Amino acid sequence: MTAAPGTHDPLQDAALMRAALALAARGLGNTWPNPSVGCVITRDGAVVGRGWTAPGGRPHAETEALKRAGHAARGATAYVTLEPCCHWGRTPPCTDALIAAGVTRVVVAMRDPDPRVDGGGIEKLRAAGIEVTVGLLEAEARAINAGFVKVATRNLPLVTLKLASTLDGRIATRTGESQWITGPAARHAAHALRGRHDAVLVGSGTVLADDPELSCRIPGFARIPTVRVVADARLRMPATARMLREGQGPVWIATRPGHPPEALAALQDAGATVFEVAPDASGQGLDAGALLRALAARGLTRILAEGGAGLAAALLRGEGLVDRLAWFHAPAVIGGDGRPALDALPLELLSAMPRYRRTSLAQPGPDLLSEFEAA
Ligand code: AOF
Ligand code: ZN
Q1: What is the pLDDT at residue 6?
Q2: What pTM was estimated for this model as a whole?
Q3: NCBIfam families from the xrefs (predicted)?
Q4: How much is the pLDDT for 1?
Q5: Residue pLDDT, tens place only, 44-81
Q6: How far apart are CA 68 and CA 66, in angstroms?
Q7: Residue 258 gets which letter from DSSP?
């Protein structure tokens, strides 16, 4: 049954926007610096085209979906998770493609904050006589576009802080033994998390302690290899580190200014990109906000921070730097002489304690994965 022109079935609209959001979610971690957008095109109640932002950020979702719909796009409705672009970037505007294809109705989940678009796409579609609805499942779309929106509005990427600890919040024994606290299913889930982020961020202490590879080792998951970023104020990272020899994806090292060029050259020769970031107040670490702004300036929108305890605490100390927590808990305890997941914040008053709202709970194998958002 087709609804009369101008009247639409809200349940069907919501179901189709949900389908577009699911397509958008597929691209997370693979489209930076662009957002991951989903588009579903329907005609007479049947889906005739689906598309999502291609790895690397182009082509855009709408043109992918239009390509699949072909002539069926004439008189069709397009459901898009972000306002279609109206600017000439490296691809022609999606608004023009929708108009040229003869789409007659566009349902948009949220406006695009990019100043080149920012309502202009909606206006252009309306000016062409297309019926446009804005705001369907906007909260869900904001969650998917959170990294892109944070960069566009605050020059900061979305940060998910991932930690894996015992029930009592320990990540190693007194002697430093840390492998493995969580089981294989949790580690697999952690790799999937890496794949949905543009980059993994660790402190150099973690590199020295564990010599990790830090890539997403699920075949086909990270279509664009996850960037591996090391916060290394003192330039302690050895040029022989495993991540420089193994695994996929670029290695970026952020350090404080003033190191001799030879020290940088050794790491650059090993394949790393090295850049300088302002130090923190102690001069020993990096300023967490400056580090994140530098990553946003390089195009990253979604960062998975994986510790160690110093980096995690530095991020949490910064106002509004950590957006989400992904905390794995193993059903085990180490006790007070073990290494804590977090260095001191420090905190004296409970009223100043950062609080979170749980958004999901999963049980990978014997472990728990709780995800939280800043409250
Ligand atoms: C869309 N559909 O799938 C995406 C959009 O550099 P360009 O030309 O690729 O443009 C990037 C901008 O386009 C980006 O900042 C955002 O505003 C929008 N992304 N728009 O219509 C898409 N990924
Ligand atoms: Zn576009």
Answers
A1: 66
A2: 0.95
A3: eubact_ribD (TIGR00326), ribD_Cterm (TIGR00227)
A4: 45
A5: 989 999 999 999 999 999 999 999 999 999 999 999 99
A6: 5
A7: T
Task: Indicate the SS3 state at residue 162.
Answer: strand
Q: Mean pLDDT for the chain?
A: 95
What residues line ligand 1, using a CB cutoff of 6 Å?
Answer: 34-35, 37, 53, 57-58, 60-62, 82, 84-85, 89-91, 94, 112, 114, 117
Residue type, 110: M
Q: What ipTM is given for this predicted complex?
A: 0.92
Please state the atom number of ligand 1 nearest to the C-alpha of residue 39: 3
For residues 219-236, average pLDDT: 92
As a whole number of angstroms, the distance between CA 57 and CA 30 comes to: 7
Query: Tokens 């996850």 belong to which residue?
Result: 226
User: Residue 202, Cβ neighbours under 10 Å: how many?
Assistant: 24
**Region of poorest pLDDT, from 21-30, 154-163, 216-225, 365-374:** 216-225
Integer Cα distance of 56 and 112 in angstroms:
19
Count of helices and strands (H, E) across the chain: 12, 16
pLDDT score at 329: 98
Question: Which domains are delineated in the chain?
Answer: 10-148 (3.40.140.10), 156-374 (3.40.430.10)
Catalogue the active-site residues. 62
Q: Are 269 and 290 in contact (CB under 8 A)?
A: no
Ligand located closest to 36 CA = 1
- Would you state the pLDDT for residue 47? 98
Instruction: Give dist(CA 374, CA 208) in Å, integer.
Output: 30
What's the CA gap between 2 and 106, in Å, rounded? Answer: 16
Average pLDDT of the segment spanning 11-32: 97
C-beta of residue 233 within 8 angstroms of C-beta of residue 285: yes
Determine the Cα angle at 203 with ends 201 and 204, to 5°.
125
Query: Does 2 score more than 70 pLDDT?
Result: no
The number of beta carbons lying within 10 Å of the beta carbon of residue 215 is 20
Q: How far is the CA of 154 from the centre of ligand 1 (A)?
A: 18
